[in-house]
Amino acid sequence: MRLCPNRNETFTRVDGKTWDIQTNNFGERILSKDTNPTQLWLIGDSMAMGYGLPTKETPAFYLKTKYKIETRVIAVDAIGTNGIFKLLKESLDSTKQEDLPSQIYWIWNPSDFIDDEREKKGLKRYLYPIHYKLSRNSYLYRSLLPSPPSNVYTLSGIPILYPENHTTYSNLLQFLNDPAITQKKLNILFTWGMSRVEKPDTKDPNYNEAKIFFIKQGMKTIDLRKKTEDLFKEQKQVYISGDGHPGPALAELFADAIAKDFLNLP
C-alpha cells in the first residue's frame, strides 16, 4: 500500500481534533512542495508517517524546524515488515545515486507482529485493502468481524510474547540480510506503545525480545522507552487519546533522538 499521490487533505480524529496530510507524486508524506530531502530517510508504518498528527506536530516537522534537517518520509499506515521492506527497496531503486541517504531511521513497534500476519499473498493480498477500508469506516462491518489477535497495541487484549518462529522475525531476517540494504545506514528506534488504559504498555514483553533480536543482527538500536515514561509522568501528550498513535510529545522525542544521532550531538 501507498498513500495517494499529490493530495492535501484534512481529517478528524476520534478526539474531535483535525489533522492534515500532504503527499508528493510518490505518495510520500511531505511538509510542503518545496522540500527536497536526500540524506536522512525515515521509514516505517503509522508511527513514522505521523498518523493522526497535523503536519506541524510530525517528527519530520520537528527535525526541520529544530535542527534544519530535511527528512524523506517513506511510511504508510497499517503496513508490516514486508511492506516497509518493499517500499524502501522501491525508493532506493528509483533514487539517483547522489540522492541516496547517508542514514535511514526505522521507528519500529510490535504492531508488525499483527500487520505481518495480515499481509497475505494471492487473492487475499487484493482483498485486504478492501477489508481495511471497511473496518475503518463501517460500524456494521466491524461488528461482524471476529475478535482480533490479543496484543496490547490493538487496545483489545493483554500482551503476549510472540515466538521466535513468528513470521515477523522471518521477515526481519530477509529484510536485514538483503544486499540492497546497507545495515550500517539503518538505525532502529522504538518506544512503548499505548496500552488500552492509555498508559505506556510496559508489560508488553515483545520490546525486549525485539531489541535482543536486532542487537544479535548487528543493528544499532535507539531505545526511547525510559524517556517516554518520563514524558508521560510529566503529563505531556505522548499518545493521541482514544487512538494509541504517538502524540506530539513522542513525535518530538523521535526527532530529538534522530537528530542527536544523525548530527553526532552529545
What do you see in this structure?
By secondary structure, this protein is an alpha/beta fold. The protein has one domain (8-262): 3-Layer(aba) Sandwich (Rossmann fold), CATH 3.40.50.1110. It is 38% helix and 14% strand. It has a five-stranded parallel sheet, with helices on both faces. It starts with 7 loop residues before the first strand and ends with a helix.
Task: Name the features.
266 residues, alpha/beta, Rossmann fold, 5-stranded parallel sheet, 10 helices, 38% helix, SGNH/GDSL hydrolase family protein
Q: How many beta-strand elements? A: 8
Q: State the helix count.
A: 10
- Spatial order of strands in the largest sheet: 5-4-6-7-8
Number of domains: 1
Describe the global form. globular
Uncertain spans: 148-156
- From the 3D structure, determine the CATH topology: Rossmann fold
Write the CATH homologous superfamily: SGNH hydrolase
* CATH top level label: Alpha Beta
N-end to C-end Cα span: 38 Å
Rounded average pLDDT: 88
Short description, anyone?
By secondary structure, the protein is of the alpha/beta class.
Blueprint of the fold:
Elements lengths: L7 E5 L5 E6 L5 E2 L9 E5 L1 H4 L9 H9 L3 E5 L5 H13 L9 E5 L3 H8 L4 H15 L1 H6 L22 H10 L9 E5 L15 H11 L3 E4 L1 H9 L14 H15 L4
Parallel strand pairs: 4-5, 4-6, 6-7, 7-8
Antiparallel strand pairs: 1-2, 2-3
Helix pairs in contact: 2-10
